[in-house]
Each structure stands twice: as structure tokens, then as C-alpha cells.
Amino acid sequence: MTITGDWYNEYGSHMRITADPTGCIRGTYVSGAGHAVGSYPLVGRYETAAFPDHGTPLGRTVAWRNGKTDACSVTSRNGQYYADGGERICVTWLLTASATEANTWEATAVGQDVFTREPPSREQAERRLRQAGVTSHPHTLSLDEVTPV
């Protein structure tokens, strides 16, 4: 099995990744939550020599800026790829938004997601979004709303 391919979380977000033999991950991420419009590039790394009967550690990052929106934030996901009886990627994520130094303490949210090869139904994703408090997908602004620093 390989982590290359299409992955979906419980909110309907779609990740398409390519993993090369040297441990590099590249791909795109389309959010099923929040107001992130369009696809965003992602980059990361994975362990190429994981222990037998263990998960494969991996990490990847999405900066929430593309040609349509800019959320002035980044989400990093770290976790494990498992292929024992059904492929899944279980991750813990950190969403960090731009903040003043005085507000750094409240600029990062944390949570968990599970990605599988099968997308959830629209009803499942909508139900999960209603139940969620915080998601790893930010509120984004159109580039017209962003004031350059």
C-alpha cells in the first residue's frame, strides 16, 4: 500500500497527495469546511522505513493562501498512515492564524481528523460539520479584503 492518492476526512475535505521514495509528500487540499475557496498546495514528509506492524509517521502543511483567498494562517497535520485492514491516516492538526504578539496564546487551535479513501456522503459531512466546534480549515478573506502589512 502507499499513501499516494486521494484521501477524504469526515468533513468532506479532499486531499490528493503524491509520496516519493525519498519521503517527500506534495499535493493539493480542498477544504470541505470553513470558507477556504479552491485548492491549496500542501507539502510534507513521511518516514520511509517505518517499523513492521506500526503506522507510518507523516506530516504535511497547508498555507491558506491561493489565487482566490488568503486566511493569513497555516494548518499542519502530523500523524500515522495505517494499512492494516483498511487504509486510514489519523492526524492531529494545528491551525495557527496570524496574530499580534500579545494574542499569540490564542492564535492556535488543535484537533484531530481521520482521512480515508472513501468520501463521506454529503449528509454525513454536513452532520459532522454541525457537530464540530473548531475545524482545521480557517475563515478566509478574498485578496481584495487583505490589507498588505
Automatic annotation (TrEMBL):
Main location (coarse class): secreted
Localization per Swiss-Prot or TrEMBL: Secreted
Highest taxon above the source species: Bacteria
Keywords: Biotin, Disulfide bond, Glycoprotein, Secreted, Signal
Annotated InterPro entries: Avidin, Avidin-like_sf, Avidin/str, Avidin/Streptavidin-rel
Residue numbers spanned by region Disordered: 128-149
Record PROSITE patterns: AVIDIN_2 (PS51326)
Family the entry assigns: Belongs to the avidin/streptavidin family.
Function: Forms a strong non-covalent specific complex with biotin.
Record text on subunit structure and interactions: Homotetramer.
Protein name: Streptavidin
